[in-house]
Design a protein that fits this description.
By secondary structure, the chain is of the alpha+beta class. Helix content is 52%, strand content 29%.
Length: 126
């Protein structure tokens, strides 16, 4: 799995890098067909000049075979934003994995029911 972590208006510290990688390893344990993940950590200072809080944002773009998943989380604390981002990404991965498994079971279920109906038609014809 190729992981790219970058910062926008913020320098990515070793602690942030480690936190993101540890959280993404948890996702990789659930689903091993991930091709790449691009994480962008950013800081929005738009409200800070007039006494507002700085807003930290964590975004991730994950590529799996045939699909791209995008999540984004915003919080006052960067580590909370990272945790929220990985939780959202994990939910999307579980949903995608469930869909893939459902497609496989529906496909095999259709084939077996088709074969059973063919056998029943052949038996009734005799």
């Amino acid at each position: 799995m190729n992981v790219s972590i970058s910062g926008h208006h913020i320098s990515v510290t070793d602690a942030m890098n480690t936190a993101v990688r540890e959280k993404l390893e948890k996702i990789e344990r659930h689903f091993d067909q991930i091709q790449s993940i691009q994480v962008i950590l950013s800081l929005d200072n738009s409200g800070a000049s007039d006494g507002g809080k700085k807003s930290h944002k964590a975004e991730a773009i994950m590529r799996v075979s045939g699909q791209e998943m995008f999540v984004q989380a915003q919080d006052d604390d960067m580590y909370k934003a990272i945790n929220e981002m990985t939780d959202k990404l994990e939910r999307q991965v579980r949903k995608y994995k469930t869909r893939q498994q459902d497609k496989k079971t529906r496909a095999t279920g259709r084939d077996s029911s088709y074969n059973n109906s063919e056998a029943a038609d052949a038996a009734s014809a005799m």
